[in-house]
Each structure stands twice: as structure tokens, then as C-alpha cells.
Write the C-alpha cells for this entry.
Amino acid sequence: MSTEPVHPAEPVTRPIEFHKERVIIFDTTLRDGEQCPGASMTFEEKLEVAELLDEMGVDIIEAGFPVASEGDFESVREIARRTKNAVIAGLSRTALADIDRCGAAIKPAKRGRIHTFISTSPLHMSAKLNMTPEEVLAATIAAVTRARQYTDDVEWSSEDGTRTDIDFLCRCVEAAINAGATTINIPDTVGYATPQEYRGLFETVRARVPNSDKAVFSVHCHDDLGMAVANSLAGIAGGARQIECTINGLGERAGNAALEEIVMAIRTRADVLAYETGIETTMLNRASKLVSAVTSFPVQYNKAIVGRNAFAHESGIHQHGMLKNRDTYEIMTPESVGVSKTSLVMGKHSGRAAFREKLKEMGYELGENALNDAFKRFKDLADRKKIVYDEDIAALVDDEILTAHDRIKVVALTVIAGTSGPQSAALTLDVDGEKRVHQSTGNGPVDAIFNAIRAIVPHEATLELFQVHAVTQGTDAQAEVSVRLSQGGAPSVTGRGADPDTLVASARAYVSALNKLTARGERQHAQHAAG
């Protein structure tokens, strides 16, 4: 392949201005993130993500690997054409054809960068490249020189830099800067380094390379050992001022350093991380949801900053503290990352104070006895359901309020049902403080339950309506049952009952309606007696 220089138009950009304590955010979601198996994005999806990254203040967007495919080339070029503020970078190997293709792709950008890389570790040079160190050094110089013909914003990366011989790494860095590289990236390609090692690497290289002050140093960390964010921040402490990261930590293998975690660590711990970024943090949650949607990669519930549970509290101890002062368990506000508010998740670990607060939010004011009864039923429900929704609580409390003064209450129910009939129900009711038990059979479990109720509390009411619907989604949803009874030509009455067990809800609904009939009869009897 010819190594004769090309003669492009004027360079398309200037290196990004660098301030001592400003950390440059280099987002590679569209390049390194998309290399994650199964995370490919369409042309339109890439444009949508790039637009949001630009809007939220990302300094550099690595839009793709132009030589990889025609689609990648077109997406990089279109992102370069559309982006208003960010520098648009394209990745290339040190092959000159790669660099030419990259230069063409970033040409429409207001500010463009060529990011060229080559492996420098002994393992990679021998097993992957089949090149000698001298050949790698020569390729580095040739690639950076070629890239400078397209733009004066050139980044050079030493792939597998953390496993590279330090003397050879320093030689390569010095040569790349002499050839015109304005950014030097030393990546922890396989997530092997520890924070102390990574910080020391940057301190050593910057001290030993005589022209190191002529370039911005960059970190690029993978999360194979779960230390990508810690290593990135350690690299900054070692003198780097650019962090390469992705939304949601998307990337190959265990992923990359997560942009949202880095940005919020710097913002939250300003006392020990004396840096700043240009990211509008209130857009972090939105960016996370968009990338998750277009890649079909769900965000784990307990993911820092953007996980569904990041600002959710279920433990009664935690909820009690949050109600007193949100600083007790939150080191940042949910609003600061674009989440509307803290969520007190109601579950089996929730305490009475949080339950009372939830009821107030929902418009319920219960007396102490009613609150105690409702809380007991809530804890019973939480033991049976993974998630207790507001609708569940509403159904439970409405049921509790409606039945608080009932003469007849459901105490226990056991049903035997199946393909072989008849079905049977063993029912225990509390009638005016007295426990009464009866077992009945019927044409199905509901019929057996209603027959048992009639046996315990004899009456002549007619069943006009039996209706069931689920309060929430899921197979463990509470059932809410409505029962309508009529008797003696008087207006009918409707009772409701709610429970995760549809049959229990059915018994409660029938008993609720029966209580209304009984109460009406007692009122009528009292009126006749008074007359």
C-alpha cells in the first residue's frame, strides 16, 4: 500500500481547549459501546443518541469506526454533519487506509478528531499483530503524521497499555506527540489494573516523557474486575484530563467505565475530586433510558445513579430516616440526575411510618386502630407479593375502611378444588365476636364458599352479580371482587373484597354485601320498634 501523503483540504478542527481542572468527557457509546455483543444500533438510533449526547454537554463523541463498514462510515459522517457542539471522533487503526477513511468521515464536522490506535504490549504485538516493537513505533509515527494531514486534533492510543513495558510505552508516547498527537490515551484494555497502579502509570509516563506537556492524557478503562470507574478517577489523579466512557457502562465483555457514575462522583465528591465536567447531569437518566431502549440492554435495578432502585427505599429503617431528613440515606438528589423524586417502595421491609406517609400521599387519614389493622394486612400482602403497588394499597385500605364496623368478618378459608368434584370450602366467620365454622360443597369453589356463608348466616338474598378483576399486573396481582345481593324487593347492595387469593376476595365481597343487608334490616327493625 502506498504511503505517499494525501492532500486534503484545510484541517477541519482545532484541539479542544484544555483547562487545568476541567475533565474532558469523551463518550464512546456509539463505538466501543456498540461493540458489545447484541448492542448494535440502527442508523437512525445512532443519530438520536448522538443528538442527546451533544445536548447534554459531552465534549467528544466517538461516533464509530468508519472503515468497519459502509454503514459505520455513513453514520459517522452524518453525525459529524449534524452535531452542533461536540467534537466528533472516528476510530482508526494505524493502517493508512483506515486513517484516510476516517478523515473523510469526520470532514463535515465543525470540530473533528481522528483517534488512531495500535497494540503495544508484548503479548498483543507478538500474538495479535506479529510485529516487532520497532515496527509498532514506526506505525505509530506514520499514522499520527497521516492523521495530522486531515485535522490537527489527533488522538493516539496504546492498546493494552497497562500491560506494556514502561520503557517502550514512554518511547511510543514521545514519538506520537512529536508526530503531532494532541491527546495520548493509555487504556486499561482488559480491565487488569488497580487504581494505585493506574495512577502511578500516568505519573511515571508524564514525568519521563520530555514533551508530555504538549498533549492531554486520557484514560479508557474496562470493567472486567469491576474497577473501571475507580481506575478512571485514579488516572485523573495521576494527571490525565480526559475520561473515555459510555452511557450505562455499555461495552465489550464487562463493559466500560460508566459516564453517569464518573460525572456524579466528580460532582458529589468535590471535596476530594477537585475537577469539573460540562455535563448537564439532569439529562443522565434520560440518556440511560434511551441507550437501554435502542440497544435492548436493560439497566440492572441496583445500577448506580440510573438504576430503578438508585433512589428507592424499602427498608423500614431507611424509610424512617428519609422521612426525617433525606440526607440520611441519599448523597445526591434524584432531581440532579433527572429522576422526578425519591421513591419509598412499599414492601415487606417497610415500616409503619413509611406506610402512614404513603397513605397520606394517597389521601387516606386513618385512626390508630384502623391504621394498625391496615398495616397488618399490608405486611401480610407484602409477604405474598414481590411488588406492592399503590393500587394494591388503595384496594387494601378501601376494603379495611368498608369492613371496619362489620358484624360479620372472614377469619379463615380453605378450599379444595380441581377437576374432580364436588369442590368444597371450609370457612370460619366471626359473627358478633363469635367464631363459627362450616364446610360446604358446591358446583365449583366459589359456589362452595357462598354455600358455607349461607349456612353460617342463613338468609334469603339472591346473588345478582359476581365480578372479578385484577388490581395490578402480574400473576401475583390482587383480585378485587364485586358481589351484588338483593332481598325482598328492596334495592340491591354491592360488596367488594380484595386479596391476592381470588377465592378469599370472593368470600370477603359476599360477606361485605351481606353486612350491608344485615345493617339495613337492623335499621328497618329499629324504625318499626320506634314507631
The longest strand covers residues 408-416. Residues 406-530 form a domain with the Double Stranded RNA Binding Domain fold (CATH 3.30.160.270). The longest helix spans residues 502-530.
